[in-house]
Structure formats: structure tokens, C-alpha cells
Amino acid sequence: MSDSIAGLLGGGRPTFSFEFFPPKDDAGLDQLAATAARLAPLAPDFVSVTYGASGSSRERTIKATRRLATETDFRIVGHLTCTGQTIDQVKAALDDYAAVGVRCILAVRGDAPGGPRQPWQPVPGGLANATELVALVKGQGDFEVGVGAFPDGHPAGGLDLDAQLLADKQAAGASFAITQLFFTPGRYSDLVRRAGEHGATMPIIAGLMPITKLGQVRRFAELSGAPVPPAIVRRLTPLGDDPDAVRDEGAQIGLGLAQELLALGAPGLHFFTQNRSGVTREILATLLAHRGRA
Questions:
Q1: Which of 57, 85, 244, 285 is the most buried (most CB within 10 A)?
Q2: Residue of 19, 132, 144, 249 marked active site
Q3: Has domain 5-293 been given CATH number 3.40.1190.20?
């Protein structure tokens, strides 16, 4: 096993990884553990647990991370935001991660409490942005740091600004990035090109959300600023009253997007699972089977 995510990304084959969110209660935590068990045979290169855009789920995130670290052999990437937290609270979260063996952090600014399109303000005694968060994490010990990227542009800024921020975060110590969800493969290529023009050469993993419900994906897309292409809406809308048909068509859409991104040279795919395993399992099993025949 490589010692770093960046090392894996430079290993000559695409990485595959999963993102979970912290459950609200013990029943949800049990469901997460069951989902992780079902995904384990696919041998993901790493998994991550989100922190909550506003930093509000810290304790639940640490609890879920601790359970995954105890019950699985997964390499775990811990999420960390600087929204709503002082520097001391950020350092405490890093100590919690280190205590369960997590040595890789995904450092993102996080959204304002009112949503991603609201003005963002640091708390007194807090950090101003993700670049400062990267530098703090790197200064706290032997942590590898990844950051977020936005193929459709960050809701709070433009495409070129996001590319420049990637370069700034790389200079602060980040060694890889994971994109927000998106649905148009060409946007990924454009992001990599813009990032390179601004001096950001770190590998960028493509983030994918398998579609199981059109309404759910529309809500996530609105929050993230990633529009659902009309062609996908047209494929799914006639199936709206048949959840199994939507799920099956969503799996085919996700598989096609994954294959296009790999053909474009994406060094890895990161699946936003929503703590469900079915569609992700199907897509990844197909990709791995094709890789095995290559």
C-alpha cells in the first residue's frame, strides 16, 4: 500500500474511493457500517466521511470515522472545514483524527450556515479560507492534505478564481484534489487545463454522485452549483413514477460518465455514496471488470 493518496494517484492506474456522511443516530451508524461491509469486497483505495459544510457534525463525523477505523481495513481520509470553528477547535479535530489513525485530511472551507450562496465570514479566532486551513494542517504534524475543486465553478466565485485557489492551496501544502459532483465530462478537462495554467499540477480526482432519485440530485446540484444537463433530465423524467427504473437508468448514466472521465485521464473516481451501496457497487464492479480485461 502506498504511503500517500498522491502516491496512489501516480501509480499508473485509476483509484476508486467512496464518500460517506455522518449518520444522525445509532441506527444510521449501523446502516453506514453495513454499507461499508458491502463495499469492502471492491477494495476501495480510500474512503472519507464528511464533516458537515458548517462544521456542525464534528462529533458524529469522528464517531463514524472511529467505527470505520475499528471495523474495516479502509484507508480513511478525514474531512475538515474551517466554518464556524476557531483554530483551537480545528486543532482538536486533528487530534481526534490522529487518535484513530487518520493521517490524511480533506481540507475545505465549508459553506456559510445559510448555504453556499450566502456570504461567508470566519468566526473570531478562526481561519479565513481553505488555503489557511491547508497550511495549519500541514503545520500540525505528518498529515497529507487534499482539497476540493469545482468543475462548474464555485458558487461564490468564478472558474478562473477556483483554478487560482487550487494553485494557492497546492503552494500551502495540498497534494491532491477531489471535485464536487458534476455531470459534464468536458468540465473536468477544462478544470485540469485551467488549474495547470495557474500552476496547480496536483492530481485531481473526479467526484461522482450516482443518481437514484432525480429530485435528490437536483437539490445537491443546486447547492453545489453543478447543473443537471437537460439530456439527463430527459432520460429520467419519464421514469419518475418508477423508482427501480430511475435507479437502473441512473446507474447507466453514472457508468457512462465514469468511463468518459477515465478516458479523459482522470487519475481517480470518488463516489458520493449517500451511505447506500447498490448503484456504486454496480458501477464500480463493471469498471473493475473492464480493467481486468484490459
A1: 85
A2: 19
A3: no
